[in-house]
Each structure stands twice: as C-alpha cells, then as structure tokens.
Amino acid sequence: MSTTAERVGAEAPTGRHTTAEEIAQLNKPRQSTGQRLGRIASYVGMALIVIYCVLPFYWMIVSSLRTPDEGRSTELLPSPASLENFVGVFTGNNNFMVSLGNSLIVSSVTTLLTLLFGIIASYALARLRFRFKGIILAVIIATSMFPGITLIIPLLKMFTGTYEWFPVNWMNTYQALVLPSLSFAMPLCVWNLTAFFRQLPVELEQAAMVDGCTPGQAFRRIILPLAAPGVFTTAIITFIAVWNEFIIALTFGRDQDMQTATVSISKFTGQYGYDTPYGTIMAAGVVVTVPLLIAVLIFQRRIVAGLTAGGVK
Amino acid sequence: MALGRQPRRVAAAALSSGVLLALAACGGGGGGGGGEEAAPGGGASAPGTDPAYEQRGPITMVQGKDTSGNVQNMIDMWNADHPDEQVTLIELSDEADQQRNQMIQNAETQGSEYTILSMDVVWTAEFAANQYVDALPKDKVDLTGFLQPTIDSVTYFDQLYGIPTTSDGGLLYYRSDWLEQAGVEVPTTYDEMKAACETVKAEVPEAEGADCYGGQHQKYEGLTVNISEAVDGAGGHITDDSGAPTANTPEAVAGLTWMRDAFADGTIPQAALTWTEEEGRQAFQDSKLVFHRNWPYVYNLASESDISGKFAVAPLPGLNGPGVSSLGGHNWAISKFAENKGTALDFMIWLAAEEQQKSNALATSQAPTRESLYSDPEVVEAYPYMETLKASIETARPRPKVVNYGDVTLAIQDATYTTLQGNAEPQAAFADLQTKLEGLIQ
Amino acid sequence: MLSDGQGRLAALLISPTMVVLLLTVGIPILLSVREAFFRENEGIDPQTGILQGGEQFVGLNNFTAIFAGLNDVTGNYGTMDRFINAFINTSLFTIVCIAIETVLGVLMALIMSKAFRGRGFVRAGILVPWAIPTIVSALMWRLIFDEAGIMNRLLGQQVLWLADNPYSFWAVVLADVWKTAPFIGLLVLAGLQTIPADVYEAAKVDGATAWRTFWRITLPMVKPTLVVAVLFRTLDTLRMFDLPYGMIGPAKYSVETLSMFAYEEANQTRYGPAAAYSIVLFLYIVLIAYLFVRLLGADVVGDEESKALKEQRRRKKERARLAGTRPGKQRTSITSGGMP
C-alpha cells in the first residue's frame, strides 16, 4: 500500500495528460499524506498502548532480577543482575512448588466442573424454549454480582462446622477452595457459552434431526464439536480467573501446604523477621504470570473473542 | 474443687475422642464463643489436678515462619529423646494478624490440630477471655528467674496462660561515629537528641543531608508501639495498670505533641509516615538517619552493612528523662481443645530451660526471657547490646491488656496517624481517643 | 419446531447449574441475612475476665448502628462513620475509575481499529495487565509507589502514596485503570469491528468531520457493547478489595472500600455487623445494575426471546399511554388494542 502511494506521489510532477489520471493524481497524493500521517499516528498510538500496559510489568521483572537485598532499589537496570530471587522462590521455607500445585489443582478442577455443568445449561439457555428463561438467565448473572465478602463469612462458618446441619471441618481442603470458586466461575462460564451457542446456526441441528438424530445426539455430534473453540476459550478464561483469585483462597486455604500461589506470594517471608522480600515476591509474581502470559499470547485471538462474548472480569 | 472436677473430666473425655465429637458438642453453641458449656468455670479455678495434663502423646507447635530453622532443630532434639511424644512444627504466615486469625479459627471450630500456640504478648487477654487457651496448672510451672514484665505479659486475672518464650524491647540505634566526631553525648531526652542532631549535622559533612530520627510510623501495630513509647516516655499512659483508659492527660498529650512537632519541624522525616521496621532500617543503614528506633534484630543486619562498626545502641530517650519501651515478644500457650496437654506442658518447660533459650538466642537473636542469659558471656559476645536490651525490657510497659485489643490498637492508630500527618491537634485527638477507649474497654 | 415443548429437558439440563449456585451462593446469602440480625455477646465476667460468649438477636441494630456515630473515623472527606466513609470511597472509586477507564479504553480501541499491522501484538500486550493476578499487581504497585520508589524518582518529588491521604486514593485509581482500561479497549474494539465500513464511507461522502463521525456514528453503534462492558466493570469496582488492601493496607480510610471494611469486621469476629455491611453493599450493587438496565438500556441477558417479549410489553404500554387512558383503564385498552 504505502509503496504504491509513494510511487504515485513521486510520479505526479512528471504527470500525463488524460483527465482521469489527472483526477487520480490530484486525489491520491493528498490521500497518501493523510494516510501516512494517520498510519504514523496509529503506530505511535499503538506503541503508547503497549508501553502503558507493559511498563509496570517491566518494573516487576527488573525488580525480580536484582539481588535479594536490593529489593527496593530504583536502578532502571538490575546491577548486578542476579537470579538469586528466583532460586529463593523455590527454596527456603516458602513452599512455593506445593502452592503452584495447589493452584493448578484448584483451577483445573473448578474449570472442569464449571464446564461440565455450564455446557449443558448454556445449551438449554441458548437453544431450548421454556418458561422463565429470562428470569433464570438473570438469576445466573445476578449471582455474579454478589460481593465475595457476603459469601465468605457464612461459608467460613459453614466450613468450620459451626452449623449443626453441616457438621464438617472443611478448612484447608480442596473442596473448600473449589466450591466457593464455582460461585463466580459458574456465571462466567454460562454467560460466555450461552453467547457462543447462540452464534451457531440452528439449521445444523435441524438438519441432523431430520436425519433422525435425537436432540441429544444432535448436541453431541454436531453442536459440541462446533462449539469446541468456544468451550476452549471459556476454559482458559475460567482457569485464569480462578488462578488469580485471592480472597477465597486466603480464607479457606491457610495451612502452608494448602495455600494457592497467590496466597503464598502474599505471605512470602525473607531471611529474618520483618523482612518483606520484594525481590523474591516479584520473582514469584513473574513465575506465576509468565505461564499465563504465554497461554495468553498463543490464544489471544480466542481469549479476546471469549472476553468480548462474556464481557465479564 | 470437687464440684469443678467432674465436668472437666467429661470435657477431657470429649476432647480425647477427637474432632468429630468435639464438633458435635459445638453445634449446640450456635456459633461463636467457643464451647463454654464443655468446661464451666474454665480458667477460673486452679486447674492443678486437671487430668488432661496427664495425657501424653504426639503434639503440634504452631507459630509464624521459622526463618532461622532453629525451632525445628530444637524440636528434632526433643523428638530424638521422646519417640512416643513427637512434636510437629506448623508454620503459619509471618504476619501477626494472619497468625492470630488462624489460631482463632482453630479455636472457634474446637479443632485439636493445634496444641502449642506461639501467642503474641498482645493477644493474651483476648485468647484467655475467649478461652482459646488454657490457664496453666500453677504448681507445675516455675517461672523463677524470668524477667517480671514477661511474666506479666502472659498473666490475665491472676492466672498464668502461658510460658514466656521470647521478649522484645525497643532500642535507640545511633551513629556512634558521627556523635564522636561532633563530640556529642548519647542523648537521654528528646530535646538532647534534637540538639545532638543539630550539632552532628553542623559538624559532620557526611551527616548534612541526614534526618534526625525515625521509628515505625506507618499506620500499623508499629505505630501503636512507637506512640505508646512517646506517651510513656512523657510520663503518661494510654491505659493505666488496671487497664482503664487514661489517654486524655497532659502527660499523654505532651508525648503525642512531641512526635507531632518532630514531624512538623523535620526532626522526623515525612517519609517515616510510611515506614515499618524494614524501611527505617534501610534508611539508617543508608546513612539517612542519625538516630533510629528499632528492635534488636537490626543489630546484626546493620553490622553486616555499610555502617558496620559505625553505630551503637542506647536506651530509648524520653521527654524529660529516660524513655520507656513498649514490650514485645511471644508466649507459648496450650490450646484449650488440644490433646496430650501433659506432653505439651513438658515440652514448653523444656524449651524455656536456660540451655534451650540460650541456643535460641544465639541462633535467632531473639531476646530470651530468663534474666541470667543477659549476662551470659557467650550471648553477650554475640550481642553486645544485651545489657541495654535488658534495661529496656525491665522498664518496658505492656500495651493495653484488653480483650478487644484489635479495636483498641486501631483506635490508637486512628487518633495518632491523623495527628502526625498534621490533620488533627494532639489535645483533641486524645480527647476523642479517650471517649472511644471508654466505649471499648469495659 | 426445534425449540418447542422442551421445558422438561431444559429443566434437566439447567438444574445441575442451579443446584451448584444454590449451594455456593443461595445458602450462604440466606445465612448472611440471618447473621446480619445477630451479634455476639461482649460481656466479661468481672471475677475471671472470661467472655460470656453466645450470640443474641439484635433486630436491625447492626444496620442502624451505622448512623449511631459510635465509630467515627477521619478519611479524605472529613470525620464520619466508618461505614459511610467506606461507602463514599467505594462510590468515588467507581465513578472515577470507570470514567477514566471508559475514555482511555475507547481511545485505545479507536487506535487499534485504525491499525494495519501489529494488531495481534498490541492485543497480546494489552492482555498483560489482565493476566497478572490482582494481588501480585498490588504488591508490584506498592513497590512502585514506595516513598523511595521509582514513581517518586521519576516525578522528582517525595509523595507519600502509601500513607493515608488523597494521593493514596489516586495511586489505587492509577493501578486499577492500568489493569482494566485495556480490557474495556478490547471490548469496544470488538464492537467497532461490527460497524460496516460503508457507514463510514457514507459519512465521509457527506463531508462529516472525524469528530462528528465519532459522536454520530461510532459511539452510538458501539454503545450496546460499551454499556455492558461498563456495567460489568462498575459491578466489579463496587466490590474492590485486593488492590487497596494489598497496596495501601487495611484500615486506611482514604482508600477503605465497603468490602474491605466488612472483611476487617469479620476479622475482629464481629460477624453480625460484617454481614449487615456486606448486604448493604449487595443492595447497592443491585440498585446500580438496575439503573444501568433501566436508564442506559444495558442488555445483559441478551436473549432474543426475552427481548421480544419485553418489546411486546413495551409496545402495549406505549399504546396504552398514547390512547391517553388513565392507569385504571389501562387494562381494557391493552386487551382491546393490544394485539397487533
């Protein structure tokens, strides 16, 4: 595009004499300068956006690459650079590997359960006709409006066996981390998937049913494969939302071997009392974030599609 | 006595049969409180012959992070000699608030998972009043040779609720090299300190850009400590010995006024409003402070820094004379809902013995609770400040010993942080605080 | 027809989800409501110092205590009850953050929509703030806003962001906007891409300026997307917790939100008041969501069927109104002239 425009611009002075070309010449150079300016402006704008988004993260990386006792330094580049903080994340008594494992378990199980229930529910909401559908959708969305704190206080009492009708002690168990997470993951998932299912053409199922498929078969053989990208996207978004969750994990997984990664980071300790080991905390932040970033980079198109459909979080 | 024993035996039986039964008993309570019905009277009567204290077996010990690893070493030593009474260490977060939450939760669910709790000195009243921890059988615990303030810190309504583990007192760190160069004496009052600073800054080129003084003035527990020291150092008290609020006295207001003025005239840098222990230590080590209030842990870290050999410690200054430190430290207590309390008590007594305390002091630099260790040659060699620290602890004042300490300390922080920022007058702030404390402390 | 008489199947498919939501949301909410009417006894035995324990029904006391003036604190806006202060903070955070995020987000979307190349790259970059766990980014910002941190070094000033003052408020706003403006940008970008190119061309032919095109065409056409995005962001901001808690800390009245206050009360084992405050917060959120739907026409449910039904009802009402009948007579007018 740009080369054509420039060539036309360069040729203009030598010009030919047909009216049509004259018009073209009169028009094109003007358009091209405008276009060029616009393009430069848009590149500058995009660069600004990227800098805006990435700069604070840069500070996190730089801080993680300093030596541990330089945690609060303001040097723009780490000097001397050191991987000690990253070593510190995985050694010592921070127990970070266990926490990563917990995060993985909690996020995966929550995601799987959410999908299991969410897929069939969203299919019904997107495709079937029944009474109170609007209300049910509204209720599901409304559940995502509850402030976490409203849920956590009673759940805490429930899981600590305060109520006679629920005589269990679920503190520091996986179910105590997974179940409350469903409260926000579920609406997110249903909301996203309903939007996806709606986008799929109804004709496909109709054709399948004309061929003698039951609605169940039509769902399994036709709809599910088609919805796979949507399901996948929803899975990633749900996974990240649970992975990043803090209050629930902080409340219900307090023992060191039941902490998730986010809770573990918030409790990192240094070599002695009172120490807030910023370097190690930032290194752990990088460790937790980088896998997500890689996933995000690979699947960005889908994630954006999913976020756009859901509009949540 | 005879009346008191029967129900307690029932309670002990319920506890020994494990979590499930304990929880079933809890259900009737309808939330909160924590099992009063299981043992009426609780800590009220002397639990000397409590059969629960005859039980032995594996126990756990719960505390913040064992950063030095020394607690585990000591546990290993004990375990080697007691194969049937093994101790397991449970490490919680390093943040006091989170430790407290977790211990309270364990108690509210009547869990038997935690046996020995490492209890911050300011939690004693709350844990005792809620009966999260047991009053210890007095005839089995001998605290002779312990520093009196540490014993007071674990006593509530004449009952002993634990054994003092470690203590802590504030110290005044100062740049001995600068003071020497300027020919200034170590100050014992705030005015002397301010004058010393001016001389130092005038005489020592290196000190020109330094600030005079700084402690912990961020809005958190450290502020309560520092404010209490200023108030006590001026002869006032936020609460008196009986626990009644006395914030609105001329002496108390004078203490706060001093610190407010110190911020206003730059004696304390404005930045200190965001300082906790570490930020202050960093500033002191970066030669940005002439005087610095902090805990003993700073000594060894500073000795390995740029100012190694250039600093020393002294007792805290006060308004008209020597200052008063706030008492810090931890105590071991036995969770009410634990099993094998006999083993737990033995282990605690073993840990508190001179030999164990000494090894802990040497390994962690935490202040011991036995007086004799402050003059132990080995300890003194490792920590030259022991004499000063002992003086600091012996004259230290406890922070308010109240059940709802969380509310009280927040009220103190609310009133004073605003004042230090220059948004309230000390007199009015403490008048308000007095009203608030009267509502909070019954 | 595919979608006729499938109520039973639908019930079967939807009930697992509803059961999960009932268990994880419904029951806790009911318990929370009950909790809000109780308070723990605080009496102490004068001989032993032991607490009475137990709890008692206190009616609406936990709610009315808000106005009793027993818990006054001083924040950015003077001395007032801690709850009211938190309420103001929550509302101001929401208004300020959402306003800035929306403007920045729309701006970002416009820039990205003009891009020829590298859009994928920008999109990936934009997801960075979103992918970092909020609590981690809170700690990151705490480091940046440290008294001796990089922000003050860049500004060449010594601003005490992490104390408790109006700067703390703006530090949190900055951190929140950083995380969420790109997100709004993404959503709006998706909305922009659904606008057919010929609409713009037509505008150009008519000689409309870029500014006019934006206000007359772009904005109205992305409005449905934007309103939903803003609604969800608003609901999220009203619940804000991690960021101010991790960055500035608890009991800092210049940034304390309702979620933080309720959490702190629960920390002091005052579950009754904590539940009461969180219920007020929930009602506040519901009110805002309702206003969004009513005033801005946010289409949250997005279901064609429900939409059609709603539209039908609206038309009926409209017709009734046009007919100039009084409310009492409305019913007849609908039945008589309701069917198209």
Compact overview of the structure:
Chain B is of the alpha/beta class.
Reconstruct the topology from this structure.
The complex is a heterotrimer of chains A (313), B (442) and C (340).
Chain A: H1 2-11, H2 19-64, H3 84-90, H4 96-127, H5 133-143, H6 148-159, H7 174-199, H8 202-210, H9 215-243, H10 247-252, H11 261-266, H12 278-310
Helix pairs in contact in A: 1-2, 2-12, 3-12, 4-7, 4-9, 5-7, 7-9, 7-12, 8-9, 9-12
Chain B: H1 2-16, H2 19-27, E1 59-63, H3 70-81, E2 87-91, H4 96-108, E3 116-120, H5 124-129, H6 148-152, E4 155-156, E5 159-160, E6 163-168, E7 171-174, H7 176-182, H8 190-203, E8 211-214, H9 221-233, H10 250-264, H11 277-285, E9 289-294, H12 298-303, E10 312-314, E11 328-334, H13 341-352, H14 354-364, H15 377-382, H16 386-394, H17 405-420, H18 426-440
Parallel strand pairs in B: 1-2, 1-3, 8-9
Antiparallel strand pairs in B: 3-11, 4-5, 6-11, 7-9, 7-10
Helix pairs in contact in B: 7-8, 9-10, 9-17, 17-18
Chain C: H1 7-35, E1 38-40, E2 55-57, H2 61-64, E3 72-75, E4 78-81, H3 82-114, H4 119-126, H5 128-131, H6 134-144, H7 150-155, H8 166-192, H9 197-205, H10 210-238, H11 242-247, H12 258-267, H13 271-295, H14 304-322, H15 330-337
Antiparallel strand pairs in C: 1-2, 3-4
Helix pairs in contact in C: 3-8, 3-10, 8-10, 10-13, 12-13, 14-15
Describe this structure in words.
The complex is a heterotrimer of chains A (313), B (442) and C (340). With 313 residues, chain A is an all-alpha fold. Helices cover 73% and strands 0% of the residues of chain A. In chain A, helix 2 packs antiparallel against helix 12 and helix 4 packs parallel to helix 7. The longest helix of chain A has 46 residues. The radius of gyration of chain B is 23 Å and the shape is globular. In chain B, a hairpin with a 2-residue loop joins strand 4 and strand 5. Chain B has two domains: 232 residues, 3-Layer(aba) Sandwich (D-Maltodextrin-Binding Protein, domain 2), CATH 3.40.190; 193 residues, D-Maltodextrin-Binding Protein, domain 2 (3-Layer(aba) Sandwich). Chain B contains 18 helices and eleven strands. Helices cover 44% and strands 11% of the residues of chain B. In chain B, helix 7 packs across helix 8 and helix 9 packs across helix 17. Chain C has two domains: 230 residues, MetI-like (MetI-like fold); 30 residues, no CATH class. In chain C, a hairpin with a 2-residue loop joins strand 3 and strand 4. Chain C starts with 6 loop residues before the first helix and ends with a helix. At the B-C interface, helix 4, helix 5 and helix 17 of B face loops of C.
